[in-house]
Every structure is written in structure tokens, then in C-alpha cells.
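Much of what follows relies on a compact textual record of a protein's fold. A complete example follows; check for yourself that the lines match position by position.
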Amino acid sequence: MPIDAVVNIVISGLFTGLVYGLMALGLSVIYGVVRIVNFAHGELMAVGMYAAVFAFVMAGIDPLWMLVPLAVAFFGIGYGLQRALVNPFIGRPEHSQFILLLAVALVLVNLLLVFFGPDARGVLVSYSLDSYQIGPLLIDKVRLICAAVALITCAILFAIFRYLSFGKAIRACADNLLGAQVVGLNVKHLYALTFGLGTACVGIAGCLMSLLVDVTPGLGPAYTLLAFVIVIIGGLGSMVGALAGGVLIGVSESVAGLLFTPSAKGMVSFALMILVLVFRPQGLFKAR
């Protein structure tokens, strides 16, 4: 097999993996602070994909122009979801939290089925087939744009947690909840902000993924499972690990589709997860 084809496939998987990493970053942020696993994460991403497709079909709006409106809308959805539903379950047993968010996921999937049906829907923008040629390399324009947006979004999120006052307060809640309560931080509000930020990430990721794949309601559970695989590989609660895990999964899926069959992508992803659990259970970027 020509080495040029292999390199092109790896680059394509790298770009897709960055979008995967952004999706998993939202899940990792929520777990790292609130200590609740969002089992409706992939379903929320499917909602974002459908929103981008609906805007394109009804008004001809490019999904890239929907990034900011969807980020704002999903931040509000995440904030409201945490304050109204999740917050009363924070102190309850983990199985209660699981049932709650699983119920939210089921409601979202069935609402998508009611409003959009089971058929696949996609977006075909004017530059969907464009590419850049750099020597022997052929870089897909859409994947490059999506990867760049994912990186910029991750950088903004990192900056929020590092430099802004409420970002530092959120980190304080994650590091020492009792200490944060003692100094008077509004923990419930900070938890809701965290849930909103994580949901905004998955909304942006859904908007980007609408340019890469067709969406069906059944994609929601699949992406929830994929996000779990990524954060387990990268390390639960690690933002850098989520991004690195997404890149690793994206590249491995592309290589598996090239060497075996496209249906083998999931097999390779779970094989990587098993290897990580056996040899480094805390994840690639999680401290012991």
C-alpha cells in the first residue's frame, strides 16, 4: 500500500479525532467537577447535529455559522438541566444518577425519532468536496476546518479554567469541595456553569460532526459510548487526556478501516480501551 495513502488516512483520522476529543472533553469536564457521569452526552450531541441540519435545510445556514448560537443555546440547556434535574441527585447513590440521566437520554432519542424519523440526514455545503494538496498529501477542507474549530474551542475552555475568576472557582470546587463551601463559593451555581460549559462543548462538536457524517437518532447512544471509551483511555476528569484520547481513537479508527473493514473501527477502539484498563487503569493522563 502506498505510504502516501496511509499518511492521508492518518491525517484524516487525526482531524476527526480532534472533534471526538472536543465531544469527550465536555463529558470529562462535567465528571471532573460535578462527579456525575452524563449518560445523555451522546444524545445531546445528536440534538446539536439535528439542529445544524435543520438550520441548513430550512434556511440554508452553514453549520459553521451555527457554532456560536448553538454553543449559547446548549450552555443554557446544560445549566438548566443541572439546576432542575441533576443537582437534587448529586448526593444520591450513583445508580440513581445513572437512572436519571439514562431517562433523559431515552427521552431525547425518542423525541428525535418523533420529529425527524429514523432516516439519515446530512449537510452538503459548497465546499464539502474541496481539498488542499500539499505535495503528495491531500487534506480534506471540511475536516481541516472542523479540527481547527475544535482546537480553538478547547483552547478557549482551557483559558476559561485557568485565567477567569469563575473558572478558578470551578477548579476550587473540583479540588476541595468542603474548602470551597467554607470560603462561601456558590457551589450549586458553579456546578451548573460546569454542566453548561460541558454541554456547550458537545453542542459545538455536534455542529461540526454534522459536516462529517449523516445523523440518525441512533447515533446518540453510540456517541455516548464512544465518549466513555475516550475519557477512559485519556483518564477520567483529565481535559488533556480527553483530547489525546479522541485523537488516538480517531487515528485508530481510520487505520482500522484501511487495514480491515470499516466495521472493525469499533473493535479497535474497545481493544485500545481494554489495553489501557489492563496496563494503566487510571488512564494515559491521570495521576495515580
